[in-house]
Design brief:
heterodimer, A: about 180 residues, alpha+beta, Ubiquitin-like (UB roll), DNA polymerase, domain 1, 5-stranded mixed sheet, 5 strands, about 35% helix, B: about 800 residues, Aldehyde Oxidoreductase, domain 4, 3 domains, about 25% strand
Chain lengths: ~180, ~800
């Protein structure tokens, strides 16, 4: 380690006040400038459904929705979220009943250990919005930013299609 | 409703049903409870100072500047910890009953490190952020030593020595011979040989390791919340090295985000954390980061295999000779040491083939790399790769079809003892080959292959029949040389309302125990599956056993749940008979209702029977039932049992880029009686995906100094959804004659078979180019280097090798 870096460690840093929306609720907090967004969600807000798998943006376990777009919360600082709208897995259901996508994951055995699952659910929800007519290859492309080490993706792809089928049959045939 | 959502009618068995998993809702709702989701009052966080070098002596460790940092509570070396506990803080690893050496791994060594990432000091601070800052300020004076990283180099005279008590770097050397090996090799029409090397991979679950340790000075009680595969193994090992009595140590394993063997092993961080918590009087949390995980948890499977086959002119296999050189890394890792790769590869040498003359030697070398231990598929993976690729090469040389050659040499379906001393309990060895070939349309594929070759495209088909040792029990340990006897217990209790609690020493890391064990108990007890609760992962509420690894839980749970449930059900029926004034033999317990045989209206709910036992006093139960308990604890230690199956991979190789595309992947697997087909298919597919990783993507690289070059997930590549094809799974069921319900364990099969199916398919595709596959993972640069050597495609790469 260089002396310059060593000199920085331990220097007092002023916390930053942030106000943001998480799952539809406004939150205000004082955060250290270097606090990762995922740590803020998990440890400051107690939203432990979002997981940390690699802390370098590869595995996708920390995926959240940031102003309507999927984002890696391990590659962002909490301070960057000020003024933005965030959604985590806890947005899908907060009363213990399963969201239709969660129901499809259960029926199609789309999870084993469940560690990648919350992020996979958000990605699936976004997939069904962005590319509702995706074929199998496109589904796999869309999911390829989220690693699952357990399932071999077989149940996940099946769950995506099952959720889509249910969504379609629940809607009037002429959707636009 | 007479039929439920999974098509089960009242009274029908739960076993065999694809019941969606009962444990899913909390995981889907984001309410799982993984170790990093737990926070205790007054908790501090830890980070470890780790070796940046592959091999070095430690001159000094100076924590002065780290301790000056605000928010830092302590920096401890191994000496500090040893002064604060009565245990040795040392792992001594060997295998009993074999000529195996002993490695000594100090918890936070103060004299010498042997691999990059080895922890030498623990830093405790208010947060992980501050702890990591402080790690940067700990000054360690390292004295670099020469390193050795390759398993073959490590055996050469003059190689750097890792452990003074093991001057040849060989942790274990074993030789075995059965039948007239020299005779059949001398008399054979042909002898074929092959040298194959599998690179170093690892289980790498998506959740890294983590532990919270707490010590109560007032009572001397210690607690650990930790990732794991069964709490008793962890309690046993941590207690032994810290000197804390097992009765004073509670280990809780919450939800675990994948493990695949890695989290069942013993690591120095756990005892270090516990003793640190004892010194500081505060709970300490450590969550491993991905670099620590890649560098310093457990690696797997790196091995050189040399094989020879004695063959008759018509393709009949007469004898096999093999040499397995495993790469153990810096220390033998407990349990069950790095021999789990090389020795298990060796004992599986004959696999599905009818060969009597078999000889092998095993070496297990110590190198300046992360220790290796059990990970899904273990040494069966490189063993399978070498054997099946050699069989394909024999077929090619003798101009025989590789499927026909395998079928001609395949053992029959009946139980048998292999030349290496394993006791197979029967299986669909040949039938699975025929079934999968039919399923995939083998003849059509061969025609398609010919057609594409004419177009200059390279399609290949690889066949990989496998046998999966499916329970690591005492019998299997004895057959393979893994020393100690073990057993696992299960307790079954009917509570006063008639609901059923099953306590087990196993721990699910995604296998769905809460569902499949509930199905087993529901059938054995005669209750609805919803009324069964499975408890596991806590030494405070559990019963002893070694936990979940090596496809053992289903088999052992089936046996022990059966035994305990039958005992409890007998008591229940005795009380019900007493209440209903009917002989217990005339009663049926089904779906939670005790009915009189032939008189369904004459019945009593299980809750009423249980209530009578708990609160009815002596008059409520027959005189011979002295104790008012509805609980039984029974152990199980099954005989050897083996799943089997065959996998076929179809690949297309792009000879310009060296990229292998998996076109199709089909498996016919046979794990005996299936408890839950949904879960079995999930395990089969997941196992294949990990096999694809080993075949094409995953490798942990080190340079010659022992420096890790694969320290992130940008270097160590997981299969993504686009790397794994839709997997075609079909089942055969050959129930085991030696286990409860005929259940055989499963989940390693796909990992054992997929790499060899893929490698064989690549070799098959490239047959016209005269290329042989001698290593995996089969990366694009490796293939390009092979193809560059062949004259057939030289024109494509006039500038030489592409890398």
């Amino acid at each position: 380690m260089t002396p310059e870096v060593a000199g920085v460690i331990g220097q007092p840093v002023e916390p930053i006040e942030v106000t943001l929306s998480v799952n539809g609720r406004d939150v205000t907090a004082n955060v250290e400038p270097r606090l990762l967004l995922v740590d803020f969600l998990r440890h400051n807000l107690g939203l432990t459904g979002t997981h940390v798998g690699c802390e370098h943006g590869v595995c996708g376990a920390c995926t959240i929705r940031f102003d309507g777009e999927l984002a890696r919360s391990c590659l962002m600082l909490a301070a960057q979220a000020a003024g933005h709208e965030l959604e985590t897995v806890e947005s899908l259901s907060d009363d213990g009943t399963l969201h239709p996508i969660q129901q499809a994951f259960n029926e199609a055995h789309a999870l084993q250990c469940g560690f990648c699952t919350p992020a996979m659910l958000l990605t699936t929800q976004q997939l069904l919005r962005d590319v509702p007519d995706a074929n199998d290859r496109e589904i796999r492309e869309y999911l390829s930013g989220n690693v699952c080490r357990c399932t071999g993706y077989m149940g996940i792809v099946a769950a995506v299609k099952l959720a889509r089928e249910r969504q379609r049959s629940a809607r009037p045939p002429d959707r636009s | 409703m007479s039929e439920d959502t999974i098509g089960r009618r009242e009274g029908e068995p739960w076993i065999g049903r694809g019941l969606p998993r009962l444990e899913d809702p909390r995981l889907l709702l984001g309410r799982g409870r993984f170790v990093d989701d737990i926070s205790l009052d007054g908790m501090l966080e830890a980070a470890f100072v780790r070796s940046p070098l592959g091999h070095a002596a430690i001159r000094s460790i100076d924590a002065t500047r780290a301790l000056e940092l605000p928010g830092v509570h302590a920096v401890f070396t191994g000496d500090d910890l040893r002064a604060a506990c009565s245990g040795p803080l040392l792992f001594e690893a060997t295998l009993r009953g074999r000529q195996i050496q002993t490695t000594r791994q100090s918890v936070l060594p103060t004299d010498r490190v042997r691999f990059v990432g080895e922890p030498v000091a623990i830093v405790v601070a208010d947060s992980r952020y501050v702890a990591e800052d402080a790690v940067e300020l700990v000054e360690v004076d390292w004295d670099p030593l020469p390193a050795v990283v390759d398993e073959n180099d490590a055996l050469r005279p003059g190689a750097p020595v890792l452990h003074d008590n093991i001057p040849d770097n060989n942790f274990g050397h074993i030789e075995f011979s059965h039948g007239d090996v020299d005779g059949v090799f001398a008399g054979a029409d042909r002898v074929f040989s092959k040298r194959f090397r599998l690179g170093r991979s690892m289980a790498a679950p998506l959740e890294c390791r983590g532990t919270i340790a707490r010590y109560d000075a007032a009572t001397g009680d210690a607690e650990m919340w930790a990732t794991g595969q069964g709490p008793y193994e962890r309690r046993h090992s941590v207690a032994a090295v810290t000197g804390i009595p097992e009765t004073k140590l509670r280990v809780v394993q919450p939800d675990v985000g994948g493990a695949f063997g890695l989290k069942g092993l013993i690591y120095p961080e756990d005892p270090a954390l516990l003793v640190t918590a004892k010194i500081l009087g505060r709970p300490i949390k450590w969550i491993e980061d991905r670099f620590e995980h890649l560098a310093a948890s457990s690696h797997s499977k790196e091995m050189t295999v040399e094989l020879e086959a004695a063959v008759r002119a018509d393709g009949k296999l007469l004898g096999l000779r093999a040499r397995y050189v495993g790469n153990a890394g810096a220390y033998a890792q407990l349990p069950p040491t790095a021999m789990v790769d090389a020795l298990l590869a060796a004992t599986m040498l004959p696999s599905v083939y009818d060969v009597d003359a078999v000889a092998y030697s095993v070496d297990c070398t110590l190198t300046n790399k992360c220790p290796t231990g059990a990970a899904r598929g273990v040494g069966w993976v490189p063993g399978q790769l070498a054997r099946e690729l050699l069989i394909d090469e024999i077929a090619r040389e003798l101009e025989l079809d590789p499927a026909e050659l395998r079928l001609a040499n395949c053992i029959g379906p009946e139980p048998r003892t292999t030349a290496t001393g394993l006791h197979y309990d029967g299986g669909s060895y040949a039938e699975s080959i025929r079934t999968v070939l039919e399923q995939i349309g083998y003849e059509d594929l061969r025609r398609e292959q010919g057609r594409l070759r004419a177009e200059g495209r390279y399609l290949g088909v690889g066949i990989s029949p496998y046998v999966e040792p499916a329970v690591f029990s005492t019998a299997y340990r004895q057959a393979t040389g893994f020393g100690i006897a073990t057993f696992d217990t299960v307790s079954v209790t009917v509570e006063s309302d008639g609901s059923v609690i099953v306590r087990t020493p196993f721990h699910s890391q995604g296998q769905g125990h809460h569902t499949s064990f509930a199905q087993l108990a529901a059938d054995e007890m005669g209750v609805p599956v919803e009324s069964v609760r499975i408890e596991q992962g806590d030494t405070a509420g559990g019963v002893f056993g070694l936990g979940t690894f090596a496809s053992r839980s289903a088999v052992i749970a089936a046996g022990s749940i059966a035994a305990a449930s039958r005992e409890v059900r007998e008591k229940l029926l005795a009380v019900a008979g007493h209440q209903l004034e009917i002989a217990p033999e005339d009663l049926v317990l089904r779906d939670g209702l005790v009915t009189v045989r032939g008189s369904p209206s004459h019945s009593m709910p299980i809750g009423a029977v249980a209530h009578a036992v708990y609160f009815g006093g002596p008059a409520a139960r027959p005189r011979e039932l002295v104790e008012p308990t509805l609980s039984a604890t029974r152990h199980h230690d099954p005989p050897e049992t083996y799943s089997n199956g065959t996998m076929v991979a179809v690949v297309e190789v792009d000879i310009e880029t060296g990229i292998v595309e998996i076109v199709r992947m089909a498996v016919v697997e046979d794990c005996g009686t299936v408890i839950n087909p949904l879960i079995v298919d999930g395990q089969a597919a997941g196992a294949v995906a990990q096999g694809i990783g080993m075949a094409l993507l995953e490798e942990l690289h080190y340079d010659e100094h022992g420096q890790l070059l694969s320290g992130s997930l940008m270097d160590y590549l997981y299969p993504s959804a686009t790397d794994v094809p839709a997997i075609e799974i079909d089942h055969l069921e050959t129930p085991s004659p030696v286990t409860a319900h005929g259940v055989k364990g499963m989940s390693n099969g796909g990992t054992i078979a997929a790499p060899s199916a893929i490698a064989a398919a690549v070799a098959d595709a490239l047959t016209p180019l005269g290329v042989k596959i001698d290593r995996a993972p089969i990366t694009p640069d490796y293939l390009i280097s092979l193809l560059g050597e062949g004259s057939a495609v030289e024109h494509l790469h006039p500038e030489g090798h592409v890398s």
